[in-house]
Amino acid sequence: MSKLYLYSIFHGNLNYSSIPPESYDEIIDSCYWPILDILKDYKFKTGIEFPIATLEKIEDIDPLFIEEFRKAISNKKCEIICSGKEQVVFPLVPEDVNQVNISTGKDEMERLFSIQCNTAYINEQLFSSGLVPIYLDAKIKNIITIHEWANKFSDFHEDEKFLPKKIGSKNDDLAIIWNSYIAYQKFQRYVNGEIEKEEYLEYILKHKKKADSCFPLYGSDMEIFGYKNPVLGLKGDGKEIQRFKLILDEIEKKSDLEFILPSQVIEKFPPRDRIKMNSAKFAILGKKQDKFIVTRWATCGRDNSNSNTICYNLLKKIRILQGMQDDKNNNLYISKLIDCWASDFRTHTTETKYLHFNDISRSLSKDVDREIFSWNDKISLEKSSDLILFNPNETDWDKIPFELRLHFRPRKMKGKFEIIIDGKPISSQIEDAKYYKDGSLRSAVVVFEPSIRKKTIATITIKDTGKKIISKSIQTDSIKTPTVELSILKRKGGSISDLIFPKISKLPLIGFLEHGTFSDTKFSADFYSGHVITFDRNGNKFTDLVNVEAIAEEGNFPIRKRLVCNMELPFGHLTKIYYTYQKLARLDIRYIFNFKEFRPASFRVGMLTAKPNSFDKKSLNYATHNGGRLESFTLDKESITQDESSDPRLTNQGCLGSTEGTLDLGDKNIGITMFSDKSLWYSVPMINYHNVGKSFFYRISNSVSELDDTTMTWWKGRKEISFSLLGREKSPENNLKTTKMMFLGLVCFTRNPDIKVIK
Description:
This is Glycoside hydrolase family 57 N-terminal domain-containing protein. It is a single chain. The chain is built from 15 helices and 40 strands. It has 759 residues and is an alpha+beta fold. It has three domains: 4-288, 7-stranded beta/alpha barrel (Alpha-Beta Barrel), CATH 3.20.110.20; 387-469, Immunoglobulin-like; 473-744, Beta-galactosidase, Chain A, domain 5, CATH 2.70.98. It has a ten-stranded antiparallel sheet, covered by helices on one side.
């Protein structure tokens, strides 16, 4: 007689978004203790997973629970499953943060329980294949993730359903222990009294096969017993544990059902087949139903774009500090940053927890700022200078354009000035000059192209030339340099008509597709680039496709030219600025919003529509980071509609993590690398791709707000976001190195009391 082996993983998390700290005692007593009691009274075995942050809270509140937990592990009635220091959505967080999170969690878990922890529960069950090397580096052997999402592109035979698989390379792979969101929701419905015991038992038994097989009985939250859970819609009537015991009584009567630990699944059913766990359409696997897609933690919630901006700003400071100290092993601040990136600050977050996020992020920011300025105070220079410039990057800064906003005391600077680095004048240009009443320069942006070796300092002297800054404004719908040709549509908000990088291709890569470009009725409309589309919470649609004046400047601009469009929109004022570079195949688009008072449902900016005749369809692809290593995806016959939704409660079907701020799109010969500094205003890219006859439709949207049941976004005042488009031939490797440096930038300190560096 064949057996059905039942395994489970109970996930506990006191930082659960909707649980206030005042309820922690109740949760431990009502939800956590009953599982340990059941382990003593029944043949039941299970895996239990807590983030380290939760274990520390439990140990502080009820150390007896930790003692009993250790006994259960020692008696092999349960096993500890690793997740990390804190529950974080890995596909939305950069690799270096994820590495510290999982390694710290594993090390602390093994220290607390004196065991080896080989199995990890994927945080929030949101997975990308780029994470595999992180788990392998942490010496994790098995991961637990959702079967239904993997089933979207791996066709499992019914007889092999829930049998472990492998992911990774031939010589270095992870075993996959399957979770099932349908199975754990059935369990939740049963213990909540929504389905009867007989119906639930029948559901379990129908997974029995002719040969021995396994079934994930449960793989989700512990906070479902005796606690009113508004997120899951559970009543918390106090009878959940009793119902659990009743089904255990029935299971123990059946000799063909047996409980095993998650790790024993691998022992009984060794994985043989290596599977693929991603596709161009599903680069990030979901948690359960569609409303639990990764965008929920990216740009929904309590203005998650703001919370994630704060985290990226902290990450930038920490990476700068690491460059100053040259100590990669100092993970203290990264560890604190992990707490700020906790997923439960980003969904149904209580007011208390949201305030706590603000407190810990501000505290961390002050601590890191203090160390950065302390480093500056220790710098001694042989020669005097006005400014010092430090390159914290791992590679040399080789003439990448860099801008500084400077403020001068009255009567200290007449107008035009030169930049002298380490005694040598370099090419520069001045923008946005503002003057005092007496005609002296008050502030300006200076753009220059320094060369600074990695982790070294350069000195800057600012020399007043005594000359006036001369430029002339002209109206135009195009600007051109030797490396960039841009034309815009003034009747449509200054959206991009054509963007050409002439040294890469004579054809425009991005731009406007006019009505009738495609004969397919779905794609027969006008499609623009560089514009804004938003819906408010009442369903009203707004765009920036209005009639505008476009102003360029004539003058001495050796580094870049700019084109400015100003427009009044229903939700506020928008200034859109294009920068075309003289020596680089690069276009920057800067959006400066001044919101009146706006509650967006969805807000997309920096829309890019590819020109289909400019690319080789057969090798069309995109590449990005989703919390780990760079992943590249070929666009094939499958349509991708991340920016659309058939559910009126949602505004999208997913997004990419783009965790290093980059998305490369193109073919084997040419392409564009898009970069946005997430520390200024966080956004995530969304892809819309379709085969249209022998051609294709390919558009990127960048979202700063989306709608689901957690969205509480409200804006008023100034917000600014920029996108840099870097043209490329062949590989995006050089562009990715450049954008990595652009995120960290250069660090500038003043040595002259008459000059202030404006952040």
